[in-house]
Amino acid sequence: MAPSTFNMTIGSDFENGPSKLYVVATGIASLPIDVTISGGSNKIAEEKAAADKAAADKAAADKAAADKAATDKAATDKAATDKAAADLLGQQKAVASKKIILTCVKGKLTKKVIAVKPACPKGYKKK
């Protein structure tokens, strides 16, 4: 029942980090003792790092795809807006540039006035 110390060597395939140590003598196991393994394998840490990198790469790819989709949608929306504005401007110009023929009378004289907004000359009246 007296405390004692010992040194042991474990295989390199044991993973580094916290663990529990049990001593078994004559088939009787001791209570667990907290130990930290060092000099062993970093398998868990390497797997976690690889998984973290894969997740970060996927997140970056997903963000890039979402950004591209948003940029493409914005470009499509802008093109549609620009076309609609150009169509409206074209319609306004067509309406504004349509000339009207107006016949004006002064006694026996008649005069035709052709303009976008025609007006009879002074002394003439609209027929």
What key phrases describe this protein's structure?
127 residues; alpha+beta; 3-stranded antiparallel sheet; 1 helix
Topology at a glance:
Layout: E1 17-21, E2 24-25, E3 28-29, E4 33-37, H1 43-97, E5 100-106, E6 109-115, E7 125-126
Antiparallel strand pairs: 1-4, 2-3, 5-6, 5-7
- Share of β-strand residues: 15-25%
Instruction: Output the helix-strand order.
Output: EEEEHEEE
Query: What's the mean pLDDT score?
Result: 86
In total, the number of strands is 7
Shape: rod-shaped
- Alpha carbon gap, first and last residue: 131 Å
Main beta sheet: 3 strands, antiparallel
The helix tally amounts to 1
Radius of gyration: 46 Å
What order do the strands of the largest sheet run in, or round the barrel if closed?
Answer: 6-5-7
Structural class: alpha+beta
Give a written overview of the molecule.
With 127 residues, the chain is an alpha+beta fold. Helix content is 43%, strand content 24%. It has one helix at 43-97, and strands at 17-21, 24-25, 28-29, 33-37, 100-106, 109-115, 125-126. Strands 6-5-7 form a three-stranded antiparallel sheet, with no helix packed on it. Strand 5 and strand 6 form a beta hairpin. The radius of gyration is 46 Å and the shape is rod-shaped. The chain starts with 16 loop residues before the first strand and ends with a strand.
